[in-house]
Every structure is written in structure tokens, then in C-alpha cells.
Design goal:
Strand order of the largest sheet: 1-2
Structural class: mainly alpha
Mean pLDDT: 89
Low-confidence stretches: 1-14, 19-25, 376-385
Largest sheet: 2 strands, antiparallel
Bound molecules: 3-hydroxybutanoyl-coenzyme A
Strand content: under 5%
Helix content: 55-70%
Radius of gyration: 23 Å
Order of helices and strands: HHHHHHHHHHHHEEHHHH
Shape: globular
Number of strands: 2
């Protein structure tokens, strides 16, 4: 029923924005659905049992066959140590990005221009926390604990996305983040729904579905501003000017300088290179900017008939490296805030651990006395207190 409304070309139709692209063949949302179907099929397919015993050569051959057949590696399966480490590195960086990524937008929750905008932004920022948790849970299936990963982040030994080290100066930045940052994240993450590691692929399907709402909400903020007063339009354009190149940099260094791409693509963790995804993003944004009536800040942006893609100015990769190494506009502030929040939240972790221990003890005592059934609500309240 919603499809005819969305397709009617009215103000709510933002055309090919992810999550709103009804009727567009092979949309990003369709690709997520296809990946979900492929996952279900992979679960049904049978490549025979993994070889028993300690024969590493046979195990490696089985692993290679699973990857070649585009099936999924699951936590119980043997995997090369490099594959496991690469996944932990990438998934952890991704999880940390979601958690740190709550800060730039959280900055505007108290100053959102209406109750409706505030409620939407609050929901979006909560979603980011949820995404971080799915991803930490996916990483835990690889034999590392969430506590260890969080410690590595706090010690500065694991990275998070460069993009979250830029400040959110005006309300229009919330629109630009939704459109460009979540848009770039989606272009990067939809292929990860087909990642060869089952728990990561499953987490990504859920995340990408939720991201559709994020991108749409940002686009709608910018659409409203760019069709508002001259001052609002100027604010929207200024935000797009500031967020365009940092969004292009999210895809990582150019392929010629990417340390991990080749191996990660051979293992089918990544399905496309950094430059391929960056190009897809640019090609997607040009038409969307036209609908917004805003200009992408690149004088070299033009359609290349031969390549069937847009030529564009790449981001400043020197700046990307400086931001990644801790010298961006907000790196220190972001990490200081995260460390403070972690330390102030210690009592919550302690209470949760004490409650879990109490539940486990009660369950053991219950089994010993033959009692069963769920804990009473009053137990839960008493335990949490
Ligand atoms: N920010 C920070 N670090 C980056 C980076 C960026 N934009 N791009 C690359 N790097 C780091 C890599 O982690 C790697 O560091 P390491 O060797 O010390 O681990 C180094 O730079 C070299 O880069 P590579 O190209 O060799 O690295 P990858 O093959 O891992 O590719 C990636 C980088 C494309 C970011 C890939 O890891 C990936 O697809 N990750 C999953 C998605 C993700 O983490 N997104 C982060 C944003 S999350 C988000 O946007 C939330 C949403 O709600 C908005």
C-alpha cells in the first residue's frame, strides 16, 4: 500500500535514497534481502562434515572449499589464525565506530529543533549503541571478550572510524551525517551482509535494515532545510561542504595503499575494494544531491561516458592518516568522553555481573531442590538494586 504513495513523486519521495527506493530494481535494500536469502540457503547446504582430527592440511582444504562455494564459516569451524585475527580487527573497529559515533549526534539531542526531531534522533543514537552491541557479540564468537576489545580501544590500540573525529557545528550536520555518513556506511556495509563469516554477515543484515531509517532521516532533514529559508539552505549547503570529503575518506586508503584489502577479499570478508565502494558512493550521491538542490563541493565532478561513472576529486588521504593516528579535530575529546563514560558506568557493569551471578546461583539451588521456572520479577528488581 505504501509503494504507490512513495512512487507518486510527492515531497516524501526522495527517489533512490536507501530505504525509500520502492520500485527501484536492485536497490540496496533488495540486496540486503537477497543476502538474507543467501544466508538461509547457506545454512541448508551441505558440503559434508569438516574433517576430524588434527590434520591442518585437510582442515585448510575444507575451509578453502567453504569459501570457494560462497558458504559461511561458523564459530565452531576451523579457521586460519590470520582469518580470525582479521575478523576481530575489522569487527572490533566497526563496533568501536558505532559506539564513538554516538557522540557527534548525541551533541544535538538536547538542541533538536522540535520534539519530533528529538525523538527521532534519540532513537537513531540508541540504534548505534545497539549496532555496537551486535558487533561486539559477533566478535565474541571468535574467542575474544567484549571487555578485552573495549580495553584495547581505551588504550588507543584499536581504531575507530575517522569520520567521528569531526565536529557537528550546526543542526544541518545531523542531516549531512544521516545522508552522507550513514549513506557511505550503507554502501560499505551492504556487501558485508555477504561476508564469509556467518555471525558477522547476520549482524550486518540487521544493521543495514536499521541504517535505512538513519539515512532517510538525515536526507529528510536536509531536504527540509534546503527547501526552507535562504539561511536554512545556506546552513544545509555548508554542512554538505564540510562532510563530503571526510565521508569519501571513510572507505579507507586507496587500493594501492590498502594493507588488508587483497587478503580480506580473497577470504570474502570484504567483497569490494575501498576504491570500488568509494566510486559507488559518489555515483549514488550525485542524483540525490540534485533532488536536494544542493551542490557537492567538487569542481571536478563530472560524468565519464567511457567509464560509466563519475570522475571526482579523491579525499586528502594525508588528512585521513593524520585523523586515524589521533590528530583529527576531535580525537582527544572523543576518547576523553569515552573513557569518562566507561569509568562512570563501572557500577552498572558491577551490578549486572552481581545480578547474573545471583541468578546462576539461584538456578543451581533450584535444580538441587527440584524447583524450576523463571525468576520472579521481584527477584530481578532486588538483584538489580
Ligand atoms: N577510519 C579509521 N581507520 C581506517 C579507515 C577509516 N576511515 N580506513 C582504513 N582504516 C585503517 C584500517 O583499519 C587499517 O588499520 P590497521 O591495519 O591498523 O588495522 C588501515 O587503516 C589500512 O586500511 P585497509 O584498507 O587495509 O583496511 P581494511 O581492509 O580493513 O578496510 C574498512 C577498511 C573499509 C573501514 C574496512 O575495515 C571495513 O569495511 N570495515 C567495516 C565497516 C566499518 O568499520 N565502518 C566504520 C564506520 S561505522 C559507521 O559508519 C557507523 C554508522 O552508523 C554511521
Amino acid at each position: 500500500m505504501l509503494q504507490p504513495i512513495a512512487g507518486s513523486g510527492g515531497i516524501c519521495n526522495t527517489r533512490v535514497v536507501y530505504g525509500n527506493d520502492f520500485g527501484v530494481p536492485d536497490s540496496l535494500l533488495d540486496q540486503v534481502d537477497e543476502a538474507e536469502r543467501a544466508l538461509a540457503e547457506a545454512a541448508r547446504s551441505d558440503l559434508g562434515a569438516e574433517p576430524d582430527g588434527t590434520d591442518e592440511v585437510a582442515k585448510q582444504a575444507y575451509f578453502d572449499a567453504v569459501i570457494a562455494a560462497d558458504q559461511k564459516i561458523e564459530p565452531r569451524d576451523w579457521m586460519p589464525e590470520g582469518y580470525r585475527k582479521t575478523l576481530i580487527r575489522q569487527i572490533a573497529q566497526h563496533a568501536h565506530s558505532e559506539i564513538i559515533g554516538m557522540q557527534p549526534e548525541g551533541n544535538w539531542i538536547t538542541r533538536a529543533p522540535s520534539l519530533k526531531r528529538k525523538a527521532i534522533l534519540l532513537a537513531k543514537v540508541q540504534d548505534e549503541a545497539g549496532h555496537g552491541l551486535y558487533l561486539y557479540a559477533a566478535a565474541e564468537t571468535l574467542g575474544v571478550s567484549r571487555e578485552e576489545l573495549v580495553d584495547l580501544l581505551l588504550q588507543g590500540r584499536q581504531k575507530y572510524s575517522s569520520i567521528f573525529n569531526y565536529p557537528t557545528l550546526t543542526w544541518a550536520d545531523i542531516g549531512a551525517i544521516g545522508w552522507l555518513v550513514d549513506g557511505a556506511a550503507i554502501v560499505n556495509q551492504v556487501p558485508l551482509c555477504r561476508s564469509s563469516y556467518g555471525p558477522y554477515a547476520r549482524a550486518m543484515i540487521r544493521i543495514c535494515k536499521e541504517e535505512s531509517f538513519h539515512q532517510r532521516q538525515g536526507y529528510e532533514i536536509l531536504y527540509t532545510l534546503s527547501h526552507g529559508t535562504p539561511a536554512q539552505r545556506e546552513m544545509a549547503q555548508d554542512a554538505v561542504n564540510r562532510w563530503w570529503y571526510p565521508s569519501l575518506a571513510m572507505f579507507g586508503p586507496p587500493d594501492s595503499e590498502s594493507t588488508h584489502s587483497e587478503q580480506s577479499m580473497a577470504w570474502r570478508i570484504k567483497r569490494f575494494s575501498n576504491d570500488e565502494l568509494r566510486q559507488r558512493f559518489v555515483d549514488m550521491c550525485v542524483g540525490q544531491a540534485e533532488v536536494l538542490g544542493l551542490t557537492l563541493p567538487d569542481p571536478n565532478l563530472r560524468w565519464n561516458e567511457e567509464r560509466q561513472a563519475y570522475d571526482f576529486t579523491p579525499p586528502d588521504f594525508g588528512e585521513l592518516m593524520r585523523v586515524i593516528s589521533g590528530d583529527g579535530p576531535c580525537n582527544r575529546q572523543r576518547m576523553a568522553h569515552r573513557r569518562r563514560a566507561h569509568s562512570e558506568g563501572a557500577w552498572v557493569r558491577e551490578a549486572a555481573a552481581a545480578y547474573a551471578a545471583k541468578r546462576a546461583r539461584r538456578a543451581t539451588e533450584g535444580r538441587a531442590t527440584g524447583e524450576s521456572g523463571p525468576d520472579r520479577a521481584s527477584d530481578a528488581l532486588a538483584g538489580a538494586a
